[in-house]
Design a protein that fits this description.
340 residues, 7-stranded mixed beta sheet, 10 helices, 39% helix, elongated, 6-stranded mixed beta sheet, 13 strands
Length: 340
């Protein structure tokens, strides 16, 4: 299988994220994604060469659900950039859109120097993002909201086009000979997740269904997928939208006595091992570590040198890239460090 997929020009031109010239200094702090708010404060002097630069504070506010290890990768990337740039990083998260908006308001009230935010529910964030701009605080978007960031006036956006990624996924399923797929969405109304399944359905030549589960209750996720597989034995692919859900789906397949294969979006260390063993057929990597890193680094560059990527009109794409048995070993050495 091909390792990467090039987004179609009809959507927009893909921009290549420029690798940082300085070596990354990764802090020892790691999140469990469960707390409402936490703070990463890199050790004094961690950013060599920036000792004479006034320190800035960046607030990163995401829609992460407690226990979702995907966000650990986002945060590690943000912490690495913060350490390199001598930035004080304040990280907070809540899957509830109204609460996430309140967290952005808190950052505005604290007069931070920059805000990095996910727009999983763009309408709920629109007013508070406008308030940040009125307060003169630069805002960048990442991970969720690729169709809304320009409209809301954000400086930059870092992530993958989920519709395009879904279309690529559907084509991969065709190549693998799949005939009947069920796409599992763990949060109804989440624009990025809905776009993934819509993309799969658009290009997949077989039967494509959508199954909604409660992503905050993993036992319920397992039982719901199991019930669906028992109900319809013709399902030969279960597509999940996160690594923990893929690993749970593997158990569901066993419990249901199904012959379906599991494929997924997003990675973590255990998921890479599952791809290597064949328990999971393939995964799409949107490089969350890179999303977190670029979001913080971009705000530092904007403040200190007026730089911004994409000219304010195009996103910086971090995916999709496909991981399967052919390249899983290459990715595993980075996943073992908790950065892929």
């Amino acid at each position: 299988m091909d390792r990467t997929f090039q987004p179609r020009p009809r959507r927009f031109a893909a921009l290549v994220a420029v690798a940082a010239a300085s070596a990354l200094v990764v802090t020892g702090c790691s999140s469990g994604s469960g707390g409402k708010q936490a703070q990463a404060d890199p050790a004094e002097g961690a950013a060599a060469g920036k000792a004479g630069t006034p320190r800035m504070t960046v607030a990163m506010i995401t829609h992460a659900a407690p226990g979702d290890t995907f966000w650990d990768l986002i945060r590690k990337g943000a912490e690495a950039a913060a350490a390199k740039d001598n930035v004080k990083l304040v990280y907070s998260s809540d899957p509830n859109a109204a609460t996430q908006a309140n967290l952005v308001q808190n950052a505005i009230d604290q007069k931070v120097d920059g805000i990095a935010v996910t727009l999983a529910k763009p309408d709920a964030m629109k007013a508070v993002v406008a308030k940040a701009k009125q307060a003169g605080i630069p805002v960048v978007g990442f991970n969720g909201g690729i169709d809304a960031w320009k409209e809301q006036g954000l400086l930059e956006y870092f992530g993958q086009d989920e519709q395009v990624a879904g279309e690529a996924f559907g084509e991969k399923l065709n190549d693998a000979g799949a005939k009947h797929t069920v796409c599992v969405i763990q949060e109804q109304g989440h624009v990025a997740l809905e776009a993934r399944c819509a993309g799969v359905k658009k290009t997949f030549k077989g039967t494509a269904e959508t199954l909604y589960v409660n992503g905050t209750d993993m036992p319920s996720v397992k039982s719901t997928i199991t019930a669906k597989l028992r109900q319809d034995s013709s399902i030969d692919r279960v597509v999940t939208l996160g690594a923990p859900f893929a690993l749970t789906a593997v158990d569901s397949v066993k419990d249901a006595g199904s012959k379906a294969k599991v494929a997924t979006f997003d990675l973590n260390k255990d998921l890479v091992e599952a791809v290597k063993s064949g328990a999971v057929e393939m995964a799409v990597d949107q490089q969350p570590y890179l999303q977190g890193y670029l979001s913080v680094d971009a705000l530092w560059l904007y403040k200190h040198n007026g730089n911004y990527s994409g000219g304010g009109v195009a996103p910086v794409l971090t995916g999709p890239a496909f991981v399967d048995k052919s390249n899983a070993d290459d990715i595993a050495r980075f996943a073992a460090k908790g950065t892929r």
